[in-house]
Design a protein that fits this description.
The chain is mainly α. The chain is built from 24 helices and no strands.
Length: about 550
């Protein structure tokens, strides 16, 4: 019964520590918001600035994992150079170590005061002050958890079972390293495990060299959660977290044989045995910075070799058969089916962009560039294929059909460029900077996305069926889109005049997205022009005589 109570107290204290860390992260994100992200993105133009940016971001968020995921997302959108991203991660690791070092100074008496101050700020109307209040409560809970950890581990330190377990780990450093790393992976926090080691080692019952090995394991395990979290991200993003794991793994492998010598140094009068864990944590990460920084170019080459860029896959179901070139009708049918495939790829790109904007999820954007590459490749193959169809064997009707196919393929390729070079970075910027459209603005853009997707499906039907009435409807909807774009822009400007802060922050993004969706609809509607022209339903000019 007593052991169960001790276990509950221990796990409860660790849970409170993790909850406090999460509150700090959420509070600082709310308080600083876009400034934290934009500051991190802008502060990576040189090595020293990148190191400081990673350090400050981790001090603010109290999580090197959060910094790693943020940096990985920036690399994915080309907002940070990969070489600088690795240096940012070195700074983030030092930031975590500094946090543990500060926390270990015995500031538990500040806990009630910080919680009280945080609760007072939470009752204010300002979002920034509420975020700061949440962060203060988190710091207070974290300091309180240290007191609870000390009380919970006191009976454990007297336990014969613990002494036996520690003796076993002391005789098997690799096992101790992996054990500590596993705890850090489970907790998703190297800081929490270092603090736990600090509490267990406070009485001096653990050999100093074993404490250092356990701290090394916590550092290794802390690099694993970002790798797991970016498994479905782009190759560039995965290289950042993998590089950080490699750096820590190599550092631990080099440092573990020196744990005995390091323990003797840390036992000198300049250091306190009670602070041994956090001192070792800090010195290890500083040493890693000094060694790994000059080797960053080699690390980039290594991660590129482990995670090479994906080669463009050949399109498996191409309808462009060179054996049909002597049969114009069959060749044009194949080219028509191939350009319909391009339309399906464009629909996937649009849908992913819409989902990313609605859910503020940059992972939805990760496949757009690859799809756009396929669109470029296929439309080029279509143009080359159509140009090889025997011109002398083409009737006037087949010749016009070949021109319609090429024109539709070109328009679809232009749409792909707009999505990849315009809409994708605009949505990525919105998410990275933590911006939010007003509810009305978000609804207007989502409605326009939905109409654009519907128009693209209609264009596919028009191209395949040559239905004159459907073509006319497509052009009419294009005019509806023009009116919607004008109305949305006018309403957005009115919100700016009303001083709506959310509209002010997202003004350029909102207007750019409206413009890009309008351009896409113009390209979509162009598929109807040849059909309406042949039917005599299309004016040569929209200018009034």
């Amino acid at each position: 019964m007593e052991s169960a109570i001790v276990s509950i107290n221990l796990f409860g204290a660790v849970a409170l520590l993790l909850f406090g860390l999460r509150q700090i992260k959420e509070g600082m994100t709310r308080a600083l918001g876009p400034r934290l992200r934009s500051g991190l993105a802008a502060g990576t133009r040189s090595g020293p600035r990148s190191l400081v940016a990673g350090f400050l971001a981790t001090i603010a968020l109290q999580s090197s994992t959060a910094t790693a995921l943020m940096v990985a997302s920036f690399v994915e959108r080309d907002m940070i150079v990969p070489a600088m991203a690795q240096i940012v991660m070195l700074g983030a690791n030092v930031g975590t170590a500094i946090t543990a070092w500060i926390v270990a100074f015995g500031l538990g008496w500040l806990s009630p005061l910080l919680i009280l101050g945080g609760v007072v700020l939470l009752r204010t109307a300002s979002t920034a002050k509420q975020g700061a209040g949440t962060a203060l409560v988190g710091v207070g809970l974290m300091l309180l958890s240290l007191h609870l950890l000390s009380a919970a581990t006191d009976p454990i330190r007297q336990s014969p079972a613990l002494n036996l377990f520690i003796t076993m780990l002391g005789d098997a450093w690799p096992v101790a390293l992996l054990f500590s790393a596993g705890l850090a992976v489970l907790a998703s926090s190297s800081l929490a495990v270092v603090v736990l080691i600090l509490s267990l080692a406070a009485s001096g019952g653990i050999d100093s060299s074993l404490v250092i090995v356990l701290v090394l394991g916590a550092n290794l395990g802390g690099a694993v959660p970002p790798v797991l979290a970016t498994m479905k991200a782009s190759i560039a993003a995965r290289r950042v977290t993998l590089g950080n794991l490699i750096i820590r793994a190599v550092g631990c492998a080099l440092a573990m044989p020196l744990a005995g010598s390091a323990a003797q140094v840390l036992e000198l009068p300049y250091f306190s045995h009670q602070q041994l864990a956090v001192d070792a944590h800090l010195l290890f990460n500083i040493a890693v910075v000094l060694i790994a920084w000059p080797l960053a170019p080699l690390l980039l080459k290594l991660t590129a070799a482990i995670l090479p860029d994906l080669k463009p896959q050949a399109d498996q179901h191409s309808f462009l058969d060179i054996h049909d070139l002597d049969q114009p009708v069959a060749a044009l049918v194949g080219a028509s089916r191939e350009v319909m495939l391009v339309g399906d790829l464009i629909e996937s790109m649009l849908r992913q962009a819409s989902d990313a904007m609605r859910g503020n999820d940059v992972s939805q954007l990760s496949n757009i560039s690859a799809l756009e590459g396929r669109v470029d490749r296929i439309q080029h193959e279509i143009k080359v294929f159509v140009s090889k169809i025997g011109q002398q064997d083409l009737s006037e009707q087949d010749y016009r059909r070949s021109m319609d196919i090429v024109e539709y393929a070109i328009n679809l390729e232009h749409i792909g460029d707009i999505i990849e070079k315009g809409i994708r970075p605009e949505i990525a910027k919105k998410v990275a900077l933590g911006l939010e459209f007003s509810k009305d603005g978000q609804d207007e853009l989502q409605r326009l996305f939905a109409i654009t997707l519907e128009n693209l499906r209609m264009a596919q039907s028009v191209f395949s069926t040559k239905n004159c009435e459907l073509a006319r409807r497509l052009v009419e909807v294009k005019e509806d889109v023009r009116r919607l774009e004008k109305q949305s822009a006018a309403r957005h400007l009115q919100r700016l005049r009303d001083g709506r802060s959310d509209s002010i922050q997202t003004s350029s993004l909102h207007l750019d997205l409206l413009r890009d969706l309008k351009r896409i609809n113009a390209h979509i509607a162009s598929v109807a022009h040849p059909i309406l022209s042949d039917s005599g339903l299309l004016n040569d000019s929209r200018i009034r005589s």
